[in-house]
Amino acid sequence: MDVDKAKCTCCCSCQKIKNKNSPSLETVSGQLKAARAEIIKLQRSLTKAQKEFTKQLADVEFVLNNRIQKTISKTTSKNEKLTKNLISPTSHEAEEDTSLGWLQSIKPIGYLQSCFVRKNGTPRQGGLSTHARASLKLQCFSDASPALEGLHEYSHVWVLFVFHQNNKASAKPKVAPPRVGTGPRVGVFSTRSPHRPNSIGLSLARVGRITEDTVHLDGLDVLDGTPILDIKPYIPLYDNPQNLGAEVRIPEWLAVTQNPSLDMHVEFTQEAEENLCSLESELVMFTTAEEAKACIIEILTCDPRSVYRKTKCAAELYPLCLDTLHIVSEFQENNVVQVQVVERLADTPYAEETSSNLPPRLVKEGLTAT
Questions:
Q1: pLDDT tens for residues 42-86?
Q2: Beta strands 227-233 and 318-322: pairing type?
Q3: Nearest 5 degrees, angle CA 99-CA 103-CA 108?
C-alpha cells in the first residue's frame, strides 16, 4: 500500500510538470494568428512582385517593339533613298539629312527680361515703342562678358528669338494681315505673323548699355521670358538696301497700315496719372513714372488691339500689363484712347494668371499675388 501511494505521488508530479511545460490554448491561438498574418503578407508580396514583373515585361516588350519598328523604318528609308539615288544620281538628300543634325544642338543664348509680361498690349513690331525696356543676360558661356566686347560701338542689334507662347498653334499658308481688318488674306511668308512653320522671330532693338554679361535693349517688341537664339549687330551698309542703291517696295495693304490717320490720341484721367506717379518706386524695368507713361502712350497710339477686338469687342475696356503695372483703357470715338486705371499688377486678378510669365525678379520681390 505504501508502494501504491508513492507511485501515485510520482504520477501526480509528472502530470504537473507536463501541464507546466505545455503551451496554453491562448498561446497556440496567438501563434496561429501570427502565422496566418505572415502567410497573408507573403501572398500580397508575391502578388505585388508578380504585377511588377508583368509591368516590367510589358515595358521590355514595348522597347523591343519600338526598336524593331525604328530599325524597320530606317531600313525602309535607306532603301527608298537608295532607290531615289539610283534613279537620280544627282540627288543630295542624304547629305542634307546629315547637315541638319546641328539643329538638334541649338540652345538659347539667354532668356529675355522685358517690360512686356503678357501678349496683350505688346507692340506688333520693334521700334513702335522706343521707350520699351528689356535686358538679356547671356548664359551661353561660363564667362559671357568677353562675348559682348565691342558691341557698345553699334547703335542697334538684330534679335533672333522663339515665339514661345504660340500655344502650339498650327501655321496656315494664308493669314489675315494685322491692323487691316478687311481685305484679302496673304501668304504667311509675306507677313510677320508669329504663327509660322518654324516659330522664329526677328526684331530690331537699340543697344542701351552693356554691363558685364548683360546687354540692355530699348524698343524691343518681345515678351518677358522669351528664349533668345542670337543677336547680331545692325550694319546700315548691308542691312539697308537703299544704301546699296536698290529700290525698296512694300505691298499696298502694308502701306495702308502706316497711315498716320490710324494713330490714336492718348490721354490720362487725373486719377490714373496720380496712381502712376505713386507707383514709381515699384517699377523695375523703368527708372521713372514718366518713362512708363511714354511707353504706355506709344503702345496705345498704334492701337494694339486685334482685329477681333476692334470688330467684336470694340465697346469693351482694354487691359494690358506693363512691367509691374496693370493698365485699363477705353477706346473712344474720334481715335481717342483714355487711360482710366493704373494700378499695381499684384493687386489684380491678372497677377495669378500672369505670375508664370513674370520675371523671376518680380516674384522674388513679392510683386505677384500670393
A1: 888 888 888 788 878 877 877 777 777 777 766 666 555 544 443
A2: unpaired
A3: 150
Which residue has 509528472 as its cell numbers?
A: 14
Pick the closest to residue 320 from 120, 113, 114, 116 (CA basis).
Answer: 120
Residue 211: all three cell numbers together: 554691363
Nine cell digits for residue 306: 486685334
Which amino acid is present at 184?
A: P
Q: Which residues, in sequence order, are bridge partners of residue 54?
A: none
3-state secondary structure of 366: coil
Sign of the dihedral through C-alpha 151, 152, 153, 154: positive
**Are 159 and 228 within 8 A, CB to CB?**
yes
49, exposed or middle or buried, with CB in 10 Å at 0-12, 13-18, 19+?
A: exposed
pTM greater than 0.85: no
Q: DSSP alpha helices (H): ranges in 22-166?
A: 25-87, 93-99
The single-letter code of the amino acid at 120 is: N
DSSP annotation of 168 reads T
